[in-house]
UniProtKB/TrEMBL annotation:
Intracellular or extracellular location(s): Membrane
Family: Belongs to the cytochrome P450 family.
Source organism of the structure: Escallonia rubra
Single annotated GO MF: heme binding
Record-linked SUPFAM superfamilies: Cytochrome P450
Keyword Transit peptide belongs to the record: no
UniProt keyword terms in alphabetical order: Membrane, Transmembrane, Transmembrane helix
Topological type in the membrane: Single-pass membrane protein
Entry protein name: Cytochrome P450
Organism domain of life: Eukaryota
C-alpha cells in the first residue's frame, strides 16, 4: 500500500481472496470490489443503501464535503447533479450532440501522432501525454463550449497555461485523493495534528477552487456577451 497505487495491490490480492474481500485498517473495515458484476450490484442495484459513508480527510476536503457525484450520498443533490450531467454530457442525446467534438478529437490525435512520427521516427511515443491533453480538451468543450488555452486567475495573481489547468483540476485531485492520513484509521487520535498533510491538501484545494472560480467567471462573461 505504500506505493500509493492501491488498485495494483487490490488486484493482486483478488487473485488470492476473490472478487470481494474486506481489509481491517486500524479502527475501520474496508470492503474491496474487484469484478464488474459485484461493482455493478453495489454501485447500481444496492447503491442507495450503502451510499452514506465516511470519507477520508483528503477526499472530504478535495470534494468540498462530498459535492462530487461519484463521492456524494444518495440524496437530492446526488440525483439533481447526476441528472444534469446525463442530460448535458454523458447521456445518449448529449453524446449525439457532441459527436462532432469527439470526431475532432480523434482527428487531432491522429495528426499529432503523424507529426511526431515524422519528426522522431525512432523514438518511443508517449501516448498518455497525447490522449490526456486531447481528452481534457474534449471535456472543456463539452462543459464550457470551448477549449481554454490559458486562464488568468485573479485570486492567485497569475496566468495558468492549459497544461497547468489540467494539473490543478484533474491530476492534483487524483494525487491528493490517495494521500493517507493515519488519523482516518484511528479516529480516537484525531486530536493529534498532522499539519504537513493538512497544509498540502489545503494548498491543492485553494488552487483548484481559484481556477474553478476563474473558469466560471470567464463563462459568465461569454454568456453576458451573447456568445
Amino acid at each position: 500500500m505504500k506505493e500509493k497505487k492501491p488498485h495494483k495491490t487490490f488486484l493482486k490480492w483478488a487473485e488470492t481472496y476473490g472478487p470481494i474481500y474486506s481489509i481491517k485498517a486500524g479502527y475501520n473495515s474496508m470492503v474491496v470490489l474487484n469484478s464488474n458484476e459485484v461493482a455493478k450490484e453495489a454501485m447500481v442495484t444496492r447503491y442507495p443503501s450503502i451510499s452514506t459513508r465516511k470519507m477520508p480527510k483528503a477526499l472530504k476536503i478535495l470534494t468540498c464535503d462530498k459535492t462530487m457525484v461519484a463521492m456524494s450520498d444518495y440524496d437530492e443533490f446526488h440525483k439533481t447533479a447526476k441528472r444534469h450531467i446525463l442530460t448535458n454530457v454523458l447521456g445518449p442525446n448529449a453524446q449525439k450532440r457532441h459527436r462532432c467534438l469527439r470526431d475532432g478529437m480523434v482527428e487531432n490525435i491522429l495528426n499529432r501522432l503523424h507529426t511526431y512520427l515524422k519528426k522522431y521516427p525512432h523514438e518511443t511515443v508517449n501516448f498518455r501525454k497525447i490522449f490526456e491533453s486531447e481528452l481534457f480538451g474534449l471535456a472543456m468543450k463539452q462543459v464550457l463550449g470551448k477549449d481554454v488555452e490559458n486562464l488568468h486567475v485573479e485570486e492567485l495573481g497569475t496566468t495558468f497555461s492549459r497544461e497547468e489547468i489540467l494539473r490543478v483540476q484533474v491530476l492534483d485531485l487524483m494525487q491528493g485523493a490517495i494521500e493517507v492520513d493515519w488519523r482516518d484509521f484511528f479516529p480516537y487520535l484525531k486530536w493529534i495534528p498532522n499539519r504537513g498533510l493538512e497544509k498540502r491538501l489545503e494548498q491543492l484545494h485553494t488552487r483548484r477552487m481559484a481556477v474553478m472560480n476563474a473558469l466560471i467567471q470567464e463563462q459568465k462573461k461569454r454568456i453576458a456577451s451573447g456568445e
